[in-house]
Amino acid sequence: MEKLSDDRRFYDISENFKEISEKIALSAEKSGRTASDIRFMAVTKTVEPKYINHALSLGLDLIGENRVQEFMGKKDELHLDGVEKHLIGHLQTNKVKQIVGNVDSIDGVDSIKIAKEIGKISSRLGITTDILLEINIGAEESKFGFTPESIGETVYEIAEIEGIKVKGLMAVPPICDNSAKNRIFFENMHQLFIDIGAKNIDNISMEILSMGMSGDYDEAILMGANMVRIGSALFGARNYR
Ligand SMILES: *Cc1c(COP(=O)(O)O)cnc(C)c1O
């Protein structure tokens, strides 16, 4: 692939940002909300700091990184004043120590074991770490996450863990060949979000429903997402996933 000049990439990112923001606003309105109800997360994996900083200069205030190592390596070069940082990828137990205290939220919490570890390290540091619970909404064997069937019970156990606060749910639905199928996964996620919220459990608040990526964020918003995670549609195609 031909390497684009920096100017060209900055320009593309600006244009993409405008286009995505407009689409977010439109979907928000269609679902009875406004653009300000939807958080736009820039997913920054594999993206060099200069391009991330350009995106931040456009007004983005939320980034998501997948890998602890990569985030720790890049963060000092990023203009992060007033910017919320989330870890969104699967987290290994032995990496928890490095990341707790360095991000505002850990979004891909996919087991009790990892929730407990985050709680333990946070308590040791005297902080509380916000987390989202990742739901394996398509019940895919290849994916991490709580099953939709089990989370209704498991959430009570998670509520007891000190040092963490559950702020909502996150999902990466299966890749679907049609949007009707996709919509059902989003709809099921929204229902879980409502049902768990209705339990009124201490330490569990359903404020954030993070779903929808470059290919389907508009659909996700229509189905109730209030945080969308956008990488390639903003920054261009990645070299690795
Ligand atoms: C990479 C990634 C995204 C963004 O994917 P795009 O399709 O490039 O928008 C969103 N969420 C998670 C968990 C990711 O790993």
Describe the structure.
The protein is of the alpha/beta class and 241 residues long. It has 9 helices and 8 strands. The chain has helices spanning 6-30, 49-57, 68-74, 96-99, 112-125, 148-159, 179-198, 217-222, 232-235, and strands at 39-43, 62-65, 84-87, 105-109, 129-135, 164-171, 204-210, 227-230. Strands 7-6-5-4-3-2-1-8 form an 8-stranded parallel beta sheet. The longest helix has 25 residues, at 6-30. It is globular and about 50 Å long. It starts with 5 loop residues before the first helix and ends in a 6-residue tail after the last helix. Bound molecules: pyridoxal-5'-phosphate. Residues 43, 45, 66, 88-89, 172, 213-215, 229-233 line the site of pyridoxal-5'-phosphate (PLP).
Unreliable parts: none
Bound molecules: pyridoxal-5'-phosphate
Strand fraction equals 15-25%
Structural class: alpha/beta
**Rounded mean pLDDT score:** 95
C-alpha termini separation? 17 Å
- Put simply, the count of helices is 9
Major sheet strand order? 7-6-5-4-3-2-1-8
| Sheet of most strands | 8 strands, parallel
Shape by Cα distribution? globular
What sequence of helices (H) and strands (E) makes up the elements?
A: HEHEHEHEHEHEHEHEH
- For the secondary structure, the number of strands is 8
Radius of gyration: 18 Å
Helix content: 40-55%
Could you write a compact summary of the structure shown?
The protein is 42% helix and 18% strand. It is α/β, with parallel strands linked by helices and 241 residues long.
Topology:
Layout: H1 6-30, E1 39-43, H2 49-57, E2 62-65, H3 68-74, E3 84-87, H4 96-99, E4 105-109, H5 112-125, E5 129-135, H6 148-159, E6 164-171, H7 179-198, E7 204-210, H8 217-222, E8 227-230, H9 232-235
Parallel strand pairs: 1-2, 1-8, 2-3, 3-4, 4-5, 5-6, 6-7
Bound molecules: pyridoxal-5'-phosphate (PLP).
